[in-house]
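seq:
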Amino acid sequence: MEGRHFRCGSLQSSTSDEDLVEVGDGGTLDFSLAGDVPPLDQEMAPGFPSYAGNGFDEIGRMRDFLEEPLPGVGTYEDFNTIDWVREKSRDRDRHREITNRSKESTFALIHSISDAFSGWLLMLLIGLSAGALAGLIDISTRWLTDLKEGVCLNGFWYNHEHCCWNSRNITFQDRDKCPEWQTWAELLTRKKNGGALAYSLNYFIYAAWALLFSLLAVLLVRGFAPYACGSGIPEIKTILSGFIIRGYLGKWTLLVKTVTLVLAVASGLSLGKEGPLVHVACCCGNILCHLFTKYRKNEAKRREVLSAAAAAGVSVAFGAPIGGVLFSLEEVSYYFPLKTLWRSFFAALVAAFTLRSINPFGNSRLVLFYVEFHAPWHLLELAPFVLLGVFGGLWGAAFIRANIAWCRRRKTTRLGRYPVAEVLVVTAATAVLAFPNQYTRMSTSELISELFNDCGRLDSSQLCDYVRNGTPGEGGGPDRLAGPRVQSAMWQLALALALKGVITVFTFGMKVPSGLFIPSMAVGAIVGRLLGVGMEQLALHHPDWVLFEGWCQPGADCITPGLYAMVGAAACLGGVTRMTVSLVVIMFELTGGLEYIVPLMAATVTSKWVADAAAGRQGIYDSHIRLNGYPFLEAKEEFTHKTLAADAMRPRRPADPPLTALPQDAMTLGDVEGVLGSTGYSGYPVVLSRESQRLVGFVLRRDLLISIENARQTQEGIVTSSMVSFSDHSPPLPPNSPPILNLRPILDLSPFTVTDHTPMEIVVDIFRKLGLRQCLVTHNGKLLGIITKKDVLKHIAQLANQDPDSILFN
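struct:
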């Protein structure tokens, strides 16, 4: 009888997974052992299943129903991290299968070609959609911004500039004062110069429109798409690192963000549309991914698409395709292979071409503040350029500290319960303080365009109202002496600097779409213009000073204040975001001049050094990631502590709750469901037995739940007392027992493991470079604990004397 028991055990243990497949209708597949010699002894132990060459009987058959993947198996729950290694492995298997099939038939070859081309087609669609939406946003924003001040009699849908284009009743100097455009006071009172009454009426209507636009924006965000608020770049960085935030890149978010971005910018708040355009482009990329199977079903491939979409977003925001690609590589992307670089470049190119075709600003340029400078800069001007970099770094560090402190207060106090009231209060304060000053009343993009402007003799701007007593070379005295209007403009710019610098702290982070690129550039451009005009007047009045002697002739236009404004804008933006290479390229593409790269590089590098020294290496987006508790592992920071894996794993101490592990062949379905019900972990290690604790593999909670639910619904005989097996061998069953549920196909047989003595520096590098969700800790092959991505972040925070419990999704 012992021999019979042995033969039964050996027969069952030699059965492969293929011999354990069950069809969904409850029947069995006929696995006749064709070509094999049948067992000599057909007699089995009483009560044990007999083998007749046609499969096991109904009682002893193992239930391996996962030969074909179930819907949902291998997917991820909300607010979880993807498994980069598994996703890339799946894509390689899919690509290998398509390549092998392409040799079998013409149809398979065509399918292989279409699969390879689908990525480029997707980039084309992303570029077209991002460019079209950016053009729509630009046109709508300009119209609504001008609507606060007046209306066009020829058609209310025309903005101020378009309204006056076809007018024949204006001169070049008064090209913005055509009779077809009337302010609200002129329209209501029928008087051209209404005095104080007209000013008060325009003041009131300006503030009313601003409040209406901001109210609509915050109500739409709060009611239909809460994820449409803010810049979106911190969340996109987190998503690209592998985190799942369902709905953040969905169609409702895209629709509401597009509409509310127009309303928020038009309201006059100190914010920009450039950062949110990255979010809009990524929404387009995520939605279009559903048209292609290989991107819809693979989270890692989808993130490659989102990296390219981010490049397209910056391309249409600044008219800088190359800068967009570098921005995606430097600032937001976590995984950026070479093919993603090529596709990002193509998507950015298509997006820029689409926006250029729409021509939203009517100047054949992609941005409103495109400039061209003609006067060269001198080496001695590097000193003021570096000084602008110092200011940009100090202002960036101060802004980040103030904004994070305010946002933390919003999260931890009652202030966060009233987002609508907060938006209305900030909008009212901005409108009331901005209207009296022409440089704060105009849109921030127009302000930057005005500050970047290189004054010509036909410019009617107040900043260009110089007293010209002669022409260079004729000995008639200084050519660009600052007149009374220029001096008045300097005071107004100083007041605008104070308002922009303070109000932006309270604006960024409110429950409306809000970008930070344009407000930061405006602050730097104002400081740069002030410094540039000061340097210009010094050169005119004191040409014999050492700073100007030898290169600045009396009466010559040696200093370009617009260049100083551009360098200051780059310095402040670099101080806030800590961008370097991509920022210089973006500013270079804005100006179109290679000779100004060195001043931009000097100011940008200086601002980053100063900001890093003053407030650490984290820019505004990384600071908001930490504030919100996103599980983002920054690749730029170095881990310098001498700790081991045993110091970060769970459990660490004997008093900690023991690690929940599943034995591969010793649990019933009820036991597994009990573990799932009593714990909330994302996955469970599988061990050989509770006694040995030898590691077998790792199984995800979501896969377990889906597989068990499917088995109960579709498989006959699966009950609570059914044994659950994670092995490829069928354990012996007692008589009249329910069938075994085989879950080995959902088991990861090669989980990443480290020993308890592995330095945490290596563990952190593994998590960064491989994008792991978890790593198991062993000692001589025996399971000791587990390290998740959040455990690594909490360990880093604890070593930095920060609250480790802040690493949560808030």
